[in-house]
Amino acid sequence: MKNMRNEILDILRDDAKASAKEIASMIGESEAAVAAEIKGLEDEKIILKYKTLINREKINSEYAEGLIEVKVEPQRDLGYDRIAQRIYRFDEVTAVYLMSGTYDLSVHVEASTMKQISEFVFEKLAVMEGVRSTATYFIMRKYKEHGVIFADDDKDERLVISP
Amino acid sequence: MNYDKYIAKVVAEIPPSGIRKFFDIASEMEDVISLGVGEPDFTTPWNICENAIYAIETGKTHYTSNHGTTALRQEIAAYLNERNALQYDINQIIVTVGASEALDIAFRAVINPGDEVLVPAPSYVSYMPGVKLAGGVAVPVLTVAANAFKYTADVLKSVITPKTKALIMPFPNNPTGGIMTKEELAGIVDVIIENDLLVISDEIYSELTYDGKHVSIATLPGMKERTIVINGFSKAFAMTGWRLGYVAAPLPLTKAMLKIHQYTILCAPSAAQEAGLEALKTERKNGYKQVREMVQQYDHRRRYLFEAFNALGLRCFEPKGAFYMFPDIRLSGLSSDEFCERLVKEKRVACVPGTAFGEGGEGFMRCSYASSMENLKEAIKRITEFLKENGWL
Q1: Could you tell me the pTM of the whole model?
Q2: Is the ipTM value over 0.85, yes or no?
């Protein structure tokens, strides 16, 4: 029933820094077997990248993030792929999703200031061929991202010793 | 004023908890990593909390039936059937204030003064006092590491007397992590039936069973009619503070327990009952997804810690249930108490000496892995330093 690949992914999804040795002891496999499996996951591009989740509010630097709802004209034969590609190639774009519902593409943008995001929208995105309309929302505060709650207080409320 | 004369003899005779001292030491210290916690590190899943809040908002703040709400008992009956292959009518189930209350009413419902009750050693701290408070005589049944802290027919035979009335089954076990498989249970059933014993089976850790499924002794032939099954929400659903448990038994025993419960407790808290209802309903609907994910995380920590302790020479048998390791610390030449006291004072890692769990605990310490991997790694680092600095590694 248990699947080594899924177990490794479960562990790495929560802690990308877990070493092959640690994972091996956690799931009762040899270090070599785990390392080989991780290599396989990387080679097959199942694991794409190991990134770090940062609480930007604690850094004293300008930072802005926005979500843009984009309505586009899909193209014959290419559907949404071509326009999505034209959008996601911009450096400031961190994520692009094709959505069901009232708009087509959800575009996530990061920049140093809100002004830069605004400029990106009206200079690059809104004027792009195939883009029908945009609606831009700035993120004011992050409470939770990738399953992690940003609030400082993760104090253990349990009694230190209990039966 | 001398209060001694007012305090009941049976209470005065109960020794103070072996855990208290370590609680006092550890609570005063900063930066302690505690492996001494007997409860999940997960917080109660939010859907459960949210449902309880809604219950309070909509006025479900009154007494419920003594038995517990019908809806909750129906869910409990369905759950016991699905997970542990136990079939009970809802009239055979009482919802209690934690499994602790269930133990207490079970003891008081069956024990006459002088009746002997077989209590595992080492074992959870409440069994011995519970039996004594009910007027019984607690007779320890020694379980050993060499036999993975299981009961055997021979050990039981050696302690059974004509006065023996009941046996406490404590599996999966706190503090040892021991379990008993179906075959191993079958090996002791004959002794139980031949001696006409009643079994009080504390299955609070039943969901936390690794490498296999929990088997309730009540599912063995001839056993359901002589078993009181106790379980609860604390461990499986991370709901310790809600104080919600239950007991299922043959109807005459349920009726006897209900008499005590209705006069001393009346009913389990209504908001907690609503929370428990949500826990079972959602988990049953989702194929026990939350429980499975939680068990996988405990299992990862269990394997990590097991390997780490053995690598350090603190030998332990591989625990197959609950969330405790019970490593052997005799290489230090210290008593469990001294070892744990020095470990917390020198390295700020809090564990509980095996002796807190009664006979058979000397030479061991209980380490809970209901703690994040990060904490476990840091604890192992500190324990390694502790062993090296004292020349034990």
Answers
A1: 0.91
A2: no
Residue found under tokens 């349990």 = A158
Condensed to tens digits (0 to 9), the pLDDT of residues B270-324 reads: 999 999 999 999 999 999 999 999 999 999 999 999 999 999 999 999 999 999 9
Structure tokens at B58: 């909509």
Where in chain B is CATH 3.90.1150.10?
A: 9-44+289-389
Assign residue A122 the CATH number of its domain: 3.30.70.920
A137 in a domain, yes or no? yes
Mean pLDDT of A8-36: 95
Burial degree of B168 (CB within 10 A; 0-12, 13-18, 19+): buried
Instruction: State the smallest CA–CA distance between residue A32 and chain B in angstroms.
Output: 16
Name the closest residue on chain A to residue B318, using Cα atoms: A28
Q: With 70 as the cut, is the pLDDT of residue B344 above it?
A: yes
Contacts of B333 (CB under 8 A, 6+ apart): none
Confidence of residue A57 (pLDDT cuts 50, 70, 90): confident
Rounded distance between C-alpha atoms, residue B300 and residue A34, angstroms: 14
Listed by number, the residues of chain A in 19-58 with a beta carbon closer than 8 Å to a beta carbon of chain B are 22, 25-28
pLDDT tens track for B326-337: 999 999 999 999
B133 touching A, CB under 8 A?
no
- Let me know the angle formed at the C-alpha of A146 by A142 and A148, rounded to the nearest 5 degrees: 70
CB contact under 8 A, A156 and B296: no
Task: Enumerate residues 6+ apart whose C-beta is below 8 A from A93.
Answer: A87, A107, A108, A109
Distances B174 to A53, A59, A162, B144, B202 between C-alpha atoms, Å: 37, 45, 12, 14, 10
Containing structural domain, residue A113? 56-145
Which residues in chain A are closer than 8 Å to B300, comparing Cβ atoms? 7, 11, 26-27
Domain B9-44+289-389 listed as CATH 3.30.540.10: no
